[in-house]
Design a protein that fits this description.
This protein is mainly β and about 140 residues long. It has two domains: about 30 residues, no CATH class; about 110 residues, Adenovirus Type 5 Fiber Protein (Receptor Binding Domain) (Sandwich), CATH 2.60.90. About 0% of the residues lie in helices and about 60% in strands.
């Protein structure tokens, strides 16, 4: 498959589109692919299972989404750190990354997603104990 690339409306060239799950990168800052996130720093959570996630990088912006099963131990606040597919020196103050998690089923759960240090984002929310399966979507800046 081929894609047309236009620079400033002046010239164009044909670029191959990678249809595999491996990331592609070129000098224009484009990349896409799939990966399995790694969870860490579990607070009030006994288990996290990520499904294969997908991402797209354009310039210094990465958008990713996926599915996750989350098991919360006790009522109240919880947090889970998640690894990123493309490294970024994110600060721990929550800037430069944001997104949401929405759970479905008998217990509906939502969480906010923020930057939490280099190559890590954190899901932060509150809810009752139980299993929650849902989707997340976030955008972050490569720094």
């Amino acid at each position: 498959m081929w894609e047309r690339s236009i620079d400033n409306g002046q010239t164009w060239s044909l670029l191959p589109i990678n249809t595999s799950t491996e990331a592609i990168t070129n000098n224009t800052g484009l990349a896409h692919g799939t990966y399995f996130p790694v969870a860490s720093g579990l607070v009030s959570v006994s288990g996290v299972s990520f499904r294969e996630s997908q991402y797209l990088r354009v310039g210094n912006t990465v958008t990713l989404s996926g599915l996750m099963l989350l098991t919360i131990d006790v009522s109240g606040s919880f947090s889970v750190n998640m690894s990123l597919p493309i490294n970024s020196n994110l600060p721990t103050n929550g800037n430069f990354a944001n997104g949401t998690f929405s759970g479905a089923g008998t217990n509906v759960l939502s969480a906010a997603i923020y930057s939490n240090g280099p190559n890590t984002v954190v899901f932060v929310g509150a809810g009752p104990p139980g299993n929650f399966f849902g989707s997340y979507h976030l955008t972050y800046r490569v720094m």
